[in-house]
Specification:
Elements (H helix, E strand, L loop, with lengths): L1 H22 L2 E15 L3 H12 L7 E3 L16 E3 L6 H6 L9 E3 L5 E7 L7 E10 L2 E14 L4 H11 L2 H19 L2 E9 L18
Antiparallel strand pairs: 1-7, 1-8, 2-5, 3-4, 5-6, 6-7
Helix pairs in contact: 2-5
Amino acid sequence: MKHIIGIAAALSLTACGTTNNYLAEKTKTVEYYRIFDIKTTASKQSVIKATSDGLGRNVNNAQEATPIPKSATLPDTPGRFAVINPFEGSKFAMLAGGAGSLGLQMATCDGAAWTAKAMRDVAGSDRLNITVCLFPYKDGYHLDMYAVFVKKEGGLFQVSRDLAGAMVGTPEEWTEKTFLDVARNVHARIDAKVALLEAQPEISGTPWVDPIAAPTKR
C-alpha cells in the first residue's frame, strides 16, 4: 500500500512539474544561419536573379541592393557576414540586452555583390528578420543567410500559439523553408555546384539538391 501511495505521489509531482514548466512564460532569442559555397561561371546577374527569386518564394517585402564593387578584381577568398549590435555601448542596448537575450542583433554584408533584408510576422514570435548576402570570389560565390527572431513560450497563450503554429507553421519551420528555397533555386536555375559550409542549427543530407518528395496518396 505504501509503495502504491509513493508511486502516486511521484507521478503527481512529475505532472505538476510538467504543468508548471508549460505555464511558465519564457522569452527566447533564436538565431539561424547558413553559408553555402556556389562554384559557378554563371554571370553575376544570373546568380543574383536566382537568389532573389528563391527568397521571393517566402517573402514579399525584401529590400534588395547591388552595391558597386570595391575592386575590379575578384578576391581569392569570399567575405563573410558579421553580426553586430548597432546600439552597442548605449543605455538602450543595456536595457534591450538583458539575461537570456541577444540584444538588438543584425547582420551586415560588407563587400557583398548583392544583399537583401526582409521581415515577416510569424505566428508564435515577434517579427522575424532575415538577411541574405552574396559574396563573390574567383571560383564563384558564398551565399550567407542569417535570421533572428524572439519568441515566447509557455504562459496562458501557449495553447493558441500551438494552434497557430500547426496551421501556418512555426518560426523555425518558416526560416528553414526560406533558407532551403533560396539554395534550391540557385541549384536549379544556374549551372553551379552548391555545397553547405556552415549551419546553425545543423542539418543533415543535401535537401537543397535532393528532389522534394511527392505527397503520399491515400
